[in-house]
Specification:
single chain, Dna Ligase, domain 1, two-stranded antiparallel ribbon
């Protein structure tokens, strides 16, 4: 009888040890998130097997036992979730039962404007159209001392924030989304990734942050590769320092809100300080939220003998040392490129 009792004790102790290990997190130190999709109508067993296949739990059996012990059977909600591998079975089950851990992946591409971000977020049904644009102009961001002090001269569509919202992938709650909080996350990412991590390069450039970010936005819109970025940066800074017009059509597109339409002669005569075809110097502010490669290119231009550039209809860049060479390139590769 004693041997039987000891055997039972050992078995129970072994089961308890196994169970608590099996419901622990796969990797308690991990910060990685994994997208999981729980389908409508799935049983607890199907959910357990799916989570096991996705590497989110140690044991489907332990998951089912836990769910049953907590009377959660039939209460786990379908939906898309972003779950960390540092979550235990208890935390995963609570998330699936409440649905509150459901998050969406929001990727803000490099070169997006405030208006583009607004369109993207509203298309994802996170907010009403216009909330981001409105907040960029009206919300209080005075704690971010790297932003322009005033909106005077800046395009209304971007306010003070244009150029300072860091393009990246963000995880957001699908419910309770607040435009201002999201913009603050992007500003924080900009401060950490650009200002803090590259303080040395900013100081060494001899330019103001506003100049660098504005130039970075032009480079973002005008280039396609790392090599192009640094050479175009050199070209634009030389033209800027020598009092020449920058001639960046993207600035005209920005102020006229014509991202893809043909540029006309009339457009190039637009009476706006953003029009670098008509007015010398940088535009009053950035024309897009540039990615880090373009911002770094603005900080570290690569010296070259060129003063002009253009892209042909296939996207290939062509440089020129003189205006005559540039006009020849324009003739051979683009024609006039303009409409009346």
């Amino acid at each position: 009888m004693k041997k039987l009792f000891l055997l039972i004790v050992v078995l129970v102790a072994g089961f308890v040890a196994w169970y608590f290990h099996a419901i622990s997190a796969m990797d308690s130190d991990s910060v990685d998130r994994k997208k999981v999709s729980i389908q409508s109508g799935w049983s607890t067993m199907q959910i357990a097997n799916y989570l096991d296949d996705e590497g989110m739990i140690r044991s489907p059996l332990a998951f089912r036992l836990f769910v049953r012990s907590k009377k959660m059977d039939g209460k786990l909600q379908a939906g898309m979730y972003l779950l960390q591998k540092s979550l235990s079975v208890s935390e995963i089950a609570d998330a699936l039962r409440s649905g509150k851990a459901e998050e969406l992946i929001v990727t803000i591409p490099e070169g997006y404007t405030v208006q583009d971000i607004d369109t993207l977020l509203s298309s994802m049904d996170l907010m009403e159209e216009g909330e981001i644009v409105r907040c960029a102009s009206e919300c209080d961001f005075s704690t971010y001392d790297f932003l322009p002090k005033t909106t005077e001269g800046l395009a209304e569509r971007g306010g003070k924030l244009e150029g300072f919202l860091y393009p990246d992938t963000y995880y957001v709650q699908s419910e309770g989304f607040v435009a201002k909080f999201f913009l603050e996350r992007m500003l924080n990412a900009f401060r950490n990734t650009v200002i803090t991590e590259h303080a040395t390069e900013i100081e060494a450039s001899g330019r103001s942050l506003h100049e660098l970010i504005t130039m970075g936005s032009l480079i973002e819109e005008e280039t396609r590769t790392t090599t192009e970025r640094q050479i175009v940066s050199d070209i634009l800074w030389k033209r800027y320092d020598n009092g020449m017009g920058l001639g960046v059509d993207a600035t005209v597109r920005y102020i006229l809100n014509k991202p893809t339409q043909d540029i006309t002669y009339g457009d190039l005569n637009t009476n706006s300080p953003y029009n670098t075809r008509k007015f010398r110097g940088l535009p009053p502010g950035p024309i897009a939220n540039a990615g880090l490669p373009s911002i770094l290119a603005a900080m570290t231009p690569k010296g070259s003998p060129y003063w002009y550039y253009l892209h042909d209809t296939k996207g290939q860049i062509h440089y020129a040392k003189t205006n005559e060479e540039h006009n020849t390139n324009r003739y051979f590769y683009l024609g006039s490129g303009l409409k009346e």
